[in-house]
Amino acid sequence: MKATWNNVVIAQSDDTVLVEGNHYFPVDSLDQKYVTFSNHKTVCAWKGTASYYSLLVNGELNPDAVWYYPTPKSGAEMVAGRVAFWKGVKVEA
Question: What's the mean pLDDT in 23-32?
Answer without folding.
Answer: 98
